[in-house]
Specification:
single chain, about 240 residues, alpha/beta, Aminopeptidase, 6-stranded mixed β-sheet, about 35% helix, about 20% strand, globular
Length: about 240
């Protein structure tokens, strides 16, 4: 390599370091951006947004920035993106909460699928059947957090938490895939969590859970996420998988 080439590489490296210093990056003091959906399907409430509202404004010294997103394909991700851009610093992590009527526990989702296949119309009357969330994108994206390990640890605490392996194909998955595709490359961990119906939303006692039980599980999940993001070497999802 010539002296001229070496000088050019040094200039590029110097410029890159300068740009990195100017660019704001998520820090330990940065807030968590957490979202919940508005009611859909004729319901008057959505357990997801009710749960988000009921969470404290901060957990372990970290502020929770709460945002309600519409149950609409595409627009939910736009609202999330706009909320992130309005923050003074990039969020420490992004958590998305959704309602699942067929769940009896709080379930973090491991995978988002690149597909839209709605069983019912969203709140704008859109009902896609087999479209991509992101044309040309990966078929599936993984949560970067070690969810298998975290779910196992919380089960030992006798909390109403279990692992789910994908977030369905409705608007919940649409938001999750969009967030993973956009924010994971920026070093911002994202996770979607489904919560069961709250008492009063259904006559089936198995699929309706006391709000206190949901809140306790959600809070401990967030504390675990904070714990693991402080130890970057522990956040590799593939450490948990058998391949």
């Amino acid at each position: 390599m010539s002296r001229k080439d070496t000088d050019v590489l040094k200039q590029i490296e110097k410029a890159g370091k300068g740009a990195a210093r100017k660019k704001k990056a998520p820090g330990k003091s940065a807030p968590i951006l957490i979202t919940g959906f508005d009611p859909f399907g004729g319901e008057k409430v959505n357990a997801a947004w009710e749960a988000v509202k009921a969470l404290p404004d901060g957990i372990d010294g970290v502020v929770l920035q709460k945002v309600c997103v519409p149950t609409v394909f595409g627009r939910c991700a736009d609202v999330l993106r706009e909320a992130a851009l309005r923050m003074d610093t990039p969020p420490r992590m992004i958590l998305m909460i959704g309602q699942a009527a067929s769940r009896a526990s709080v379930t973090p989702e491991m995978v988002a699928l690149n597909i839209r296949c709605a069983p019912i119309p969203d709140n704008d009357g859109i009902m896609p059947r087999g479209q991509s969330v992101l044309p040309g994108g990966e078929n599936a994206l993984f949560c970067p957090l070690p969810l298998i390990r975290i779910a196992d640890e919380l089960k030992e605490e006798d909390l109403r938490v279990s692992l789910s392996f994908h977030a369905g194909t409705f608007v919940c998955n649409d938001l999750y895939y969009s967030a993973l595709a956009e924010f994971t490359p920026r070093g911002i961990p994202c996770c979607f969590i489904h919560v069961p119906l709250m008492r009063g939303q259904s006559e089936d006692p198995y699929f309706c859970v006391d709000p206190e039980v949901i809140m306790k599980a959600l809070k401990r999940l967030i504390q675990k996420f904070l714990e693991y993001t402080e130890r970057p070497e522990q956040t590799d999802i593939f450490r948990d998988l058998p391949f």
